[in-house]
Design goal:
The chain is of the alpha+beta class. It has twelve helices and 15 strands. The strands form three sheets. Strands 2-1-5-4-3 form a five-stranded antiparallel β-sheet, sandwiched between helices. The longest helix has 23 residues, at about 255-280. The N and C termini lie far apart (about 115 Å). About 15% of the residues are buried.
């Protein structure tokens, strides 16, 4: 097979003799440039549309690239180097750029051994460049997304070296670093300072994740000397290799302090309400405002009605009144969160006795959505 150098050398006066590849030939003495048909097709120009010298090609580049190309080519001509490889980008006639990896070689002719011809053999790397640019762009977008959140995102390999992390994680973790800045590749345990208890907990969590389990863990982080008291929700997820083996673990940590503190405050309020409800001397029922089923009763109410606690908490309050819901609603018309009272209700007790009572109903708002507290007062208690 004839080499590209031979093909170019055999073509002295025209480009049609060049093989159908991305090849062009430049005569140092005459400044003549011959371009292969494939080059012309790739660029979209005819031979007469490109000046027969390197300036013709350089004009297809942006100004900065053009200047660098000229300087680089001039330096190559003066150097003793026999060849070089460069990457060039050209603006094609269709307006789209194309990238080429170009290998330039000096060809010597005659007894003088003087370099009189430069031939260039190029490889179109446009698609490879576009793929790499897209990959880099996707990587940049991904990085921007994970760094835009205050949540902590990081992953470790099986040796607990941090393989990826967002800025929020790196910023937080530096407080635990051992006398140096914590960077990617550092070890989550050997390069950070943790108590024995904390380290043991995290090792157990990672063990579960490396066994393939996806799970969530809540942590109350308390660091008195840094005045830190926060709650985090950690999501552990195994990282799989192409062959589906676990190569690492990714952790997404969200600060849930506001929600957690609100839940705790609400829980404490509930517990306070339960305490008042259970031990109050007033007879009290906790009733579902939609179904009117009794869901809880305090000791005073259980004693008053005479039914076992478990039986009373399954009954409908309307059965105790022996009335229909429409009548009950009519006699107790209440706006939400207000307390309404009514006399004249007859209560049917477990003993078969009837007692006239006055009741007070309060719809709960923040504590128990859809619940109402019914207070029952006998005549001597009013």
């Amino acid at each position: 097979m004839t080499s590209p150098e031979t093909e170019v050398s055999n073509c002295v006066t025209c480009s049609e003799g060049l093989i159908d590849k991305y090849i062009f030939k430049y005569n140092v003495d005459t400044k003549e440039l011959l371009i292969s048909p494939e080059w012309k097709r790739s660029l979209g120009y005819e031979q007469n549309e490109i000046c027969n010298n390197f300036d013709g090609l350089w004009q297809l580049q942006d100004p900065d690239h053009r200047s660098a190309s000229k300087k680089g080519f001039a330096a190559f001509l003066k150097s003793e180097a026999a060849s070089r490889t460069i990457t060039s980008i050209y603006n094609c006639k269709d307006g789209m750029p194309r990238w080429f990896e170009i290998s330039e070689k000096k060809i010597q002719f005659g007894c003088t051994q003087r370099s009189s011809v430069i031939i260039s053999y190029a490889t179109d790397i446009t698609e490879a460049i576009k793929t790499e640019l897209k990959r880099q762009n996707d990587k940049n977008i991904h990085a921007a997304l994970i760094n835009a959140t205050t949540d902590l995102i990081f992953s470790v390999d099986k040796q607990f070296n941090v393989t990826a992390a967002n800025n929020s994680f790196l910023e937080k973790i530096k407080l635990n670093a051992k006398n140096k800045a914590f960077v990617l590749g550092d070890n989550l345990f050997s390069d950070l300072t943790y108590s024995y208890k904390t380290k043991t907990i995290w090792l157990e969590l990672f063990k579960k994740a490396f066994e393939g389990e996806l799970f969530t863990f809540e942590q109350n982080e308390i660091i008195p000397d840094q005045d830190i008291d926060r709650w985090y929700e950690h999501h552990f997820s195994p990282v799989l290799d192409n062959d589906k083996t676990i190569k690492g673990v990714a952790v997404f940590s969200k600060d849930i302090s506001i929600k957690k503190n609100a839940d705790l405050a609400n829980y404490n309020s509930r517990e306070l309400f339960r305490s008042i409800f259970k031990f109050n001397s007033i007879k009290m029922l906790l009733v579902n405002s939609l179904t009117t089923v009794i869901e809880d009763a305090n000791d005073a109410a259980v004693k008053f009605y005479g039914y076992p606690y478990c039986d009373l908490c399954k009954m409908n309050i309307l059965d105790l009144f022996n009335i229909k819901f429409s009548e009950f609603k009519k006699r107790i018309s209440s706006n939400r969160y207000e307390t309404k009272t009514s006399k004249g209700f007859t209560q049917f007790l477990a003993t078969g006795d009837h007692k006239k009572v006055k009741i007070s109903i309060t719809l709960l708002s923040e504590l128990e959505h859809g619940k109402m507290v019914v207070n029952i007062f006998e005549s001597d208690e009013i």
